[in-house]
Amino acid sequence: MDLPASRGRWRRRSARSHLPLLVAVLVLLLPILLLFSSAYSTMLRSLLPSPSASGSGDAPRCGRSAELEGERFLWYAPHSGFSNQVGELRNAAVAAALLNRTLVVPPVLDHHAVVLGSCPKFRVTDPASLRASVWDHAMQLLRERRYVSMGDIVDISPIKSMVRTIDFRVFVSLWCGVDMRKTCFSGLCCAVSGGSSMPDDYNRCRSLLSGLGGSEKGCVYPVQDDCRTTVWTYQQDNDGALDQFQPDEELKRRKKISYVRRRRDIYNALGPSSQAENAALLTFGTLFSGPYRGSESYFDIHESPKDQRIQSVLEKIEFLPFAPEIMAAGKEFAKNKIKEPFLCAQLRLLDGQFKNHWKATFSALKEKLKAIELETKRNKNNSPIHIFIMTDLPPANWTKTYLANVATDKRYKLYTLKESDELVLQTAERLMAAEHGVRSGFLPKTVESMKKDCDPIQLPEILLYVEESVCSCASLGFVGTAGSTIAGSIETMRKNNVCKL
Q1: Residues 283 and 352 occupy one common structural domain
Q2: Which of 44, 155, 164, 394 is at 20 to 30 A from 55, Cα to Cα?
């Protein structure tokens, strides 16, 4: 029994007796350990790439691909209907040119899949939440294999020499390492949109693009100013001045609004010498804007006489046509199907506010038809008036409406298109095979040696775009629903004389 006790006492005495020696050794070894630790860490950093590693200087490299080093990007959150999304694309192109950034071209979102709210009522989704909603919907389009880029539908080649662009699929796959091949229809897209598909990649990319985690120095600068507080301008002498449209006193009291709207120079706020300048990615919320009570809701840059380069961009983006395949389909239908001079009637009857204005919409069509009838009588022309109808009201629901009367009246001959029509389906296939979205912007240098097959996504619904291109060819005129952005788009196409039969 003495031995174990003796051993125990010996161990305690031994530890006490050697403690000063151990402390002395550790003190001597500490500088050496720190030196080796620093050298080892340096060696590891040189061998293993890190998402926050620097390409040059001390600025963090937040992108995965070295090919994106030195590039600076601009991303924004499109929303609402297609025409609104086109308006945002035009404003984004101006902002990218102003701030010398590469524009990330987004997908076409489903109609009202992402909703802003009301700028005039000061009730809008905050920018970070809006960006997160766009990311979530883009991933839904990926999962359902229904993705189509704005660059596939809208011809952005007119601004190519003035605004650098990159397709969202290419950007996300290179910058975040996210696999975007399920958004592809043809081989080039598959070759440049690969990634790891790791859950952390998706989550990190969502966080970076949305700015929900705040800004990341040298990597992401999320713009938090929205249409409640800001109207973006350029080269005006009223930077920081109050905008003429403000929330009224009742709204301030009822909604507890304490802020005011100011006019801010976008170049001063987000350009050189600003906190945003060094960020690799600048993210906006909405970039949609429209006139309201003598002011613009958010983006008031329409001319730049002091800056000829930006003035050229503004002139080019005033009208961006559809892709050549869509324009060709409209001309083909007008020339080979209708064959005669015709009127286009765009009747928006079911969406939003328009479902309450049937009377006004039909009244405009009646007046237009009366005018054409008088003209044909003067010319002693007894042929029926040819009318192309584009409407969101299905033919089965035309009963007891003015459309039913027109359809059964022998003075008129009506034409319509359906998504399932062969012309529309063939056009969609040619459009996606062309891969305009991917080809129009930045591509990796190694693309020439990359060939990959992929399972093609389903064909997009392009009926609306083909219908608009048909209406651009209507030589007897056009009548559209008042206040509809679709009608405005058709008017712009007709003003620019895009259809030459």
Answers
A1: no
A2: 164
Element (H, E) at 424: helix 422-434
pLDDT bucket at 215, cuts 50 / 70 / 90: low
Same domain, 131 and 175: yes
Q: Does residue 362 sit in the same domain as residue 298?
A: no
- 3 state SS of 316: helix
Structural domain for 279, as ranges? 66-317
Contact 369, 385 (CB under 8 A): yes
Quick one: 229 and 185 in the same domain?
A: yes
240 found inside a domain: yes
Q: What is the number of other CB atoms lying within 10 angstroms of the CB of residue 501?
A: 8
pLDDT single digits (tens) 111-157: 999 999 999 889 999 999 999 999 999 999 999 999 999 999 999 99
Residue 64 token pair: 């995965």
CA–CA separation, 216 vs 211, rounded Å? Answer: 9
Average model confidence (pLDDT) across the chain: 85
Q: What one-character DSSP code corresponds to residue 321?
A: P
Residue 230 lies in a domain: yes
For the chain, the residue count is 501
**pLDDT of the residue at 139:** 96
Asked whether the CA dihedral 289, 114, 180, 66 is positive or negative, the reply is positive
Structure tokens at 388: 């192309």
CB 283 within 8 A of CB 276: no
Residue pLDDT, tens place only, 80-93: 999 999 999 999 99
Task: Compute the distance between CA of residue 376 and CA of residue 383 in angstroms, rounded to an integer.
Answer: 8
Mark whether 152 and 114 lie in a shared domain: yes
CA-to-CA dists, residue 406 to 307, 336, 390, 401, angstroms: 52, 23, 14, 9
Integer Cα distance of 50 and 261 in angstroms:
42
CA 252 to CA 18: how far, in whole Å? 75
Whether 252 and 311 share a structural domain: yes
Any idea which residue has 């229904």 for tokens? 146
308 shares its domain with 361: no
Residue 437 belongs to a domain: no
* 307, 352: one domain: no
Measured CA to CA, the distance from residue 121 to residue 139 in angstroms comes to: 31
How many domains does the structure of the chain reveal?
Answer: 2
pLDDT at 455: 81
Q: What is the pLDDT of residue 348?
A: 94
Check if the beta carbon of residue 423 is closer than 8 Å to that of residue 463: no
Q: What are phi and psi of 282, to 5 degrees?
A: -105, 125
Beta bridge partners of 154: 322
Q: Are 193 and 183 in contact (CB under 8 A)?
A: yes
**Is residue 177 included in any domain, yes or no?**
yes
pLDDT above 70 for 298 = yes
Residue at a domain's end among 317, 347, 375: 317
